[in-house]
Each structure stands twice: as C-alpha cells, then as structure tokens.
Amino acid sequence: MDTATDPPVIAISTSSADTSTADASPQVRFAALIEQHRGIVLKVAHGYCRDPEDRRDLVQDISVQAWRAFPAFDPSRSRFSTWLYRIALNVAISQVRSSSLRQRHYAPLDDESIAALPDPTPRDPHEADAGVRALHAVIDRLDPLNRALMLLYLDERSHREIAEILGISESNVATKLHRLRQRIREQLASPASPSPAATRTR
C-alpha cells in the first residue's frame, strides 16, 4: 500500500493532553486508538474503492461512524481492532449496496495480499503475472460480504475474530472460506473468464 497517497483519517483534536492517562477525554482516547489502528480503515477503503475521491469519502465516513459509536465501545467485550473492523466493513458494505460506491470502483487487492492466498506459484514469471491478474479479476467480482471475508482472511484474522466481526459462527466462517477458496481455484483453472454471477458464493 502506498501510504503517501492514503487519505488521512478524520482528525480529532487532542490538544496537549496525555493520551496514556486512564482519565483522558473521549476525544483524546479515540484519537489515539484511531491513529494506532488507522491501517484497518485504510485497508477497508482500498479494498472497496478504486476512485481516490470515493476512497477519501469512505475513510471519512468510517471515521465519523466510529466516533459516533465510540461511547458504546466496551474494551472488556472486544478489542478495538475487532470493533473498528466491524464498523469499517459495515459502512463500506452499506455504501456499496446503496450504490454510493459503484461496482466499477472496486479496487484490486495489492500483490502482497494476493501472495497470501494458498495457491501454487508458477515457475515462469510471465505466467505468475498472468495468474495475479486473473486472481485480481476474480476477487474484483466478489459480492460485498465475500469481499469482506476475503479481506479479513488475507489480513490473517482468526476464524473466531472473523466470526465476531461479520456476526456469523466460526463454523460458518470455515465453510464460507473453504467454498470461496475452492471457487477461486476453480475459476483460475478455467480458461473462460468468470462472470460476476459465477463468483458469488452462498
């Protein structure tokens, strides 16, 4: 990810307060936490938006929604990263489904994330490049929920955390991931280009 072009996460004024104190104001605590975990917001924005302006808007929307929900955040019930991932993905999926962000703005995942997929690596570099492009095309056509599932999988989140973020059972996570990986492998092995409908898994 090119951090030089990443849009900034919404700024919450912290003045000169000490963010390490337990009695810090909500604004100070939120600013410290959102800065520490800003990579989650940026990763989701990159995963759902190709257009830089849409990406910037999504980052802002996620940050605003997280700030509004922050008073209800309970660190004894979940980690901030899990809580933030849930909000970020909910906002992104909601915007995609409401057509605020169009399917043509879906961004291909970066090569480092693609490399994390368990798939044989071709010996020929040219063949490898073609494989990456084909994988980009397949993942590009995933529906919003399966795209979220793949994003969390590539981020090496545990089945338990994925289940908590997406609100499904761990067994459902395992089943969906197995089917999704199998479907992707089958489509990569097929000479025909996958259609959007073909890439949607149940």
UniProtKB/TrEMBL annotation:
It comes from Novilysobacter erysipheiresistens. It holds the Pfam family Sigma70_r2. Residues 10-21 have a biased composition (Low complexity). Residues 133-184 form the RNA polymerase sigma factor 70 region 4 type domain. InterPro entries: RNA_pol_sigma-70-like (IPR039425), RNA_pol_sigma-70_dom (IPR014284), RNA_pol_sigma70_r2 (IPR007627), RNA_pol_sigma70_r4_t2 (IPR013249), RNA_pol_sigma_r2 (IPR013325), RNA_pol_sigma_r3/r4-like (IPR013324), WH-like_DNA-bd_sf (IPR036388). Keywords: Sigma factor, Transcription, Transcription regulation. The keyword Nucleus does not apply. The keyword Coiled coil does not apply. Belongs to the sigma-70 factor family. ECF subfamily. Gene3D superfamilies: 1.10.1740.10, Winged helix-like DNA-binding domain superfamily/Winged helix DNA-binding domain. This is Sigma-70 family RNA polymerase sigma factor. Residues 33-99 form the RNA polymerase sigma-70 region domain. Residues 1-21 are annotated as: Disordered.
